[in-house]
Amino acid sequence: MITFLKSAENRLEVIGEAIQNCWIHAVDPTTDEIERLTALGVPQDFITYPLDLDERSRTEREDDGTTLILIRIPFYESEKADVPFGTIPLGIILTDQFILTVCRRPNDILQEFTSGRIRGLSTAKRYRFVLRLLLHTASKYLLDLREINKTVDILEDRLQASMRNKEVLDLLKYQKSLVYFTTALRGNQLVLERLQRGQMFRMYPEDEDLLEDVITENQQAIEMVNISSNILSSMMDAFASIISNNLNVVMKFLASVTIVLSIPNIITSFYGMNVSLPGEEWRWMYLAILAAMAVTSLVVVAIFAKRDWF
């Protein structure tokens, strides 16, 4: 799907075709749509690169000045997915006529831009537009990281009294998400540093300052993700030991109860034999047997309790 937008009076308006200083937003374009974009002078490779979900972050530039900035943006799949929070490529193509963004799937970042919730956007200021998109991407990583940390805190509370592997497997899913975040953010950082070394954003001092803010925000996201990843990794190791210890406590308790219950069974089995036994003619012998069972069991329970075997 292709959408053409242009800024007007501090908001974005949908237009019917590509014009000067517009923004072309393409989501999972079809073959016909790719040919339509190619007819506008955009290299076909620049359009197809972001459609590969495994594409890495990088920049490329053609002889005519057309530039591709390929980054990876955060993408929320679902809570039940194997990787709830992942990353997908986003291609930003700059020409002397318009801006073109290409992505394989709809995502929150571009939806916020197209919905008009981002104020002060101008498609005519192409470099400023790209920088704000990069800054919003870095901020989105931090927002998703907060959601991951909240979910991990909930799973941590469940794990403290758990004897199952489900919670540990849930933590493993979010650890995968953090690995994807770390890899994507490092790749984006290399792209940002390359843009800073180039001459693209030095034309306007405001744009150069905004690029520094983007780099700072991305570095903060990298550090926060690394911290969360290290904490989660240590937490998983600790809680794996806790689950094993909880299971050992239960098994110890069950073994102690089994021993205590076996004592009355031994006594009753002994006096249940069809042979002559001491006191078998005494009418109160069954009471003595019951008392012996109770006393012996209480003694064993006291010994176990003193040794903390329950």
UniProtKB/TrEMBL annotation:
<dbReference type="GO" id="GO:0046873">
    <property type="term" value="F:metal ion transmembrane transporter activity"/>
</dbReference>
<dbReference type="GO" id="GO:0016020">
    <property type="term" value="C:membrane"/>
</dbReference>
<dbReference type="InterPro" id="IPR047199">
    <property type="entry name" value="CorA-like"/>
</dbReference>
<comment type="similarity">
    <text>Belongs to the CorA metal ion transporter (MIT) (TC 1.A.35) family.</text>
</comment>
<dbReference type="InterPro" id="IPR045861">
    <property type="entry name" value="CorA_cytoplasmic_dom"/>
</dbReference>
<dbReference type="InterPro" id="IPR002523">
    <property type="entry name" value="MgTranspt_CorA/ZnTranspt_ZntB"/>
</dbReference>
<protein>
    <submittedName>
        <fullName>Magnesium transporter</fullName>
    </submittedName>
</protein>
<keyword id="KW-1133">Transmembrane helix</keyword>
<dbReference type="InterPro" id="IPR045863">
    <property type="entry name" value="CorA_TM1_TM2"/>
</dbReference>
<feature type="transmembrane region" description="Helical">
    <location>
        <begin position="284"/>
        <end position="305"/>
    </location>
</feature>
<dbReference type="Pfam" id="PF01544">
    <property type="entry name" value="CorA"/>
</dbReference>
<keyword id="KW-0472">Membrane</keyword>
<feature type="transmembrane region" description="Helical">
    <location>
        <begin position="253"/>
        <end position="272"/>
    </location>
</feature>
<keyword id="KW-0812">Transmembrane</keyword>
